[in-house]
Design a protein that fits this description.
This protein has 106 residues and is α+β, with helices and mostly antiparallel strands. The chain has helices spanning 4-20, 24-40, 48-58, 72-81; strands spanning 46-47, 85-89, 96-101. Helices cover 52% and strands 12% of the residues. Strands 1-3-2 form a three-stranded antiparallel β-sheet.
Length: 106
């Protein structure tokens, strides 16, 4: 059994963790907004790296880890799993290309 002080410390740590991470829906919304900007620029191929650059240009403080993602690819993968966007891996480079929006687009 944990002493009361240890329980309090664990509760505080969880609370701090919750405050230190952003809402994933906010990240997905910003992702869609950034992809829209690239579509408006008539980009033929929307590389994942271009999307990240656009996000960093719009919000220099943007960091996917704030939203709980280990990498930008992980953010793209989860957005694709939730059918927010469609992605495919480029055969040559192995990097993601955004091919469109999904049914659950934000």
């Amino acid at each position: 059994r944990k002493p009361a002080a240890a329980k309090d410390a664990a509760a505080k740590e969880k609370e701090t963790k919750d405050k230190d991470t952003g809402d994933k829906e906010d990240a997905f919304d910003f992702l869609c907004e950034s992809i829209d900007a690239l579509v408006r620029e008539d980009k033929d191929i929307i590389w994942g790296s271009m999307v990240k650059q656009t996000m960093k240009r719009k919000r220099p403080e943007f960091n996917e880890s704030y939203f709980g993602f280990a990498s930008f690819s992980e953010l793209l993968e989860e957005a694709a799993e939730k059918d927010i966007i469609h992605i495919k891996k480029d055969a040559r480079s192995g990097t993601y290309v955004v091919t469109g929006f999904g049914e659950n687009r934000l």
